[in-house]
Amino acid sequence: MTPAMPQASEILAALGQAVFVWDIASDTIRWGEQAATVFAGIPPDKLATGAEFAKLIEPSQTLRSAALALTSPVHGADGTPYRVEYGVRLSASEPVVWVEETGRWFAGADGRPMRAQGIVRINNERHARDEELTKLAQLDPLTGELNRTHLIAALAETIEESARFRSSSAFMLVGIDRLARVNDAFGFDVADAVILDVGKRIRERLRGGDVLGRFSGNKFGLILKNCTVDDMNVAAERFLTGVRDEVVPTRSGPVSVTVSIGAVSVPRYARTADEAINRAQETLEAAKRRRAGSFGAWRPNAERDAQRRVNIRVTDEIVTALNERRIVLAYEPVVTASSREGAFYECLVRMEQGDGRTLLAPDIVPVAERLGLIRLVDHRVLELVVAELAASPDVRLSLNISPDTTMDPDWWASIESLMHAHPGVARRLIVEITETVAIQDIDDVRAFVGRLKQFGSRIAIDDFGAGYTSFRNLRKLGVDIVKIDGAFVQNITRSADDRAFVQTLIDLARRLDIETVAEWVQDEEAAGMLRDWGCDYIQGRLIGLASAERPWSAPPDAALPAAG
User: Which residue from 47, 55, 52, 15 is spatially nearest to 31, judged by alpha carbons?
Assistant: First the structure.
């Protein structure tokens, strides 16, 4: 016996759909018989009119009427299509059922909706899927916590609420210390396991209502609501010990980690999200500099604010001096230790000011490095040095470059261009690199040195002895000259320790076929010791201080001080 075909109404009911006709003029709704199945438990009188049905709708009772009003009328037999999604609460004890309504409305003589007909369909799965996608867009994929964008939005909202209700909250940045070492030692998957575990430990120690998000690769952001300064200090210690006291289990074995924390009270010390982030960042970096695993809270500081005003002023002065060509050179002579014959001149940066004063290298370079302007200064010094070499074919000059400039591709492009434009200049150029660069970036510096030597330039390590570069690294780099830090040279006539240290450096350099320059030579006694120990060159007060005058422009006998 052939089974009976299901009626259309049965199919619609099985699909969770119901048809309707809504006479808007009289506000009556006629439903198909599927409505009793779709809206199970709702009395028919609650579905009989648009007004009564609207009372069941969440989040807004006017959603259906608004959907009709927001579509442009189409006059004709087919009516105007519309679509709206809303929630219907079947009973007070049950969750909202999400409904999608699609249909067409027909206009009256005045052009306004007079009648609508269509289908309502239960749409819980789609709504849940949309909610899940929205949720995923807000979360960090590794930790499952808020991502940076939504963390910042939550912070802005918290600051606004705290200001409105005159309460105090806190924003913290929690940075995992030395995560790069974990990356290098075990790989990124282990580092990810550390990040995930640290996030869980912080989450376990939060109060209800507090907010956690991943701010960046190794940093979490915390929003602690209704949190006084005392509460903030207690909470920070709770997070520090929660991470520090237990190792993190990973597939490569247990890893011991610590975190450092920077915090700021809002809105007391930060009235915007950007201000709170900047101040938390600032205190986090200061905490890390003190020691790993420490905490710092932002406080007003008149001295720091004054220094920032000075930095702003100096930044403007340096940039203006560069634009107005007021960055100039001074030349300090370097002579052979045995004969006192001129060997080369070290070029030192100077900045002429509008009032006639001149700032020296110690006044310019540290500030320019701290403010990120040193590359611009080094670019200008390079141009000036090459111009001097091109104009004076018998002169040899050296210039210092900062650690940042060593790795600057733009600086390298400039030196290549200048060397090609002035053939032969490179062979009379010595580039001095500070010792700390060679320690931190040995392979990159070796490549840099190799490229310079291909042009024929010589390479010196400046202030050798002040850091930790080994002689093995000197051989690896292929440097030509070692400049012994003047802090050790200036006391060799009075300090046995400094004598032993300098003499050992000279002896080891000679064995490696590396020339030596002793800086800060003050008197003849020191010069004699250095000569007897085999030092190749000396410079300092005894030989002559740096001068803005070009010594090679003077008569030959006056170019350098006479020996002895």
Answer: 47
**Residue 244 structure tokens:** 């520090």
Give 477: exposed, middle or buried? Use CB within 10 Å, 0-12, 13-18, 19+.
Answer: buried
Long-range contacts of 311-318 (CB under 8 A, 24+ apart): 311/367, 311/370, 311/371, 314/367, 314/371, 315/371, 315/373, 317/351, 317/353, 318/351, 318/364, 318/367, 318/368, 318/371, 318/373, 318/376, 318/377
Q: pTM higher than 0.70 for the full model?
A: no
pLDDT for the residue numbered 11: 43
Q: Please give the span between the terminal C-alpha atoms of the chain, in angstroms, as a whole number.
A: 128
Whether the CA torsion 195, 197, 201, 206 is positive or negative: it is: positive
Q: What is the rounded CA–CA span in Å between residue 453 and residue 431?
A: 10
Domains and CATH numbers, the chain: 8-129 (3.30.450.20), 140-300 (3.30.70.270), 324-558 (3.20.20.450)
- 257-301: per-residue pLDDT in tens? 999 999 999 999 999 999 999 999 999 999 999 999 999 999 988
Rounded Cα distance between 322 and 16, Å, is 75
| Whole-number Å distance between alpha carbons of 345 and 399 | 9
Separation between Cα atoms, residue 90 and residue 96, nearest integer Å:
7
Q: How far apart are CA 549 and CA 274, in angstroms?
A: 50
User: Are the CB atoms for 390 and 425 separated by under 8 Å?
Assistant: yes
Angle, CA 543 vertex, CA 540 and CA 545 arms, to 5° = 60
**pLDDT tens profile 401-432:** 887 787 788 888 888 898 889 988 999 999 99
CA 289 – CA 297 distance, rounded (Å): 14
- Give the orientation angle of helix 524-533 with respect to helix 496-511, to 10 degrees: 40
Residues in the chain: 564
Query: Are the beta carbons of 382 and 414 closer than 8 angstroms?
Result: yes
CA distance 365 to 492: 28
Write out the two tokens for 544.
Answer: 């002559």
- Which two tokens mark 499? 């004598």
Candidates 368, 361, 356, 372; CA nearest to 329 is 361
What pLDDT does 357 receive?
A: 82
Token output for 467: 């850091």
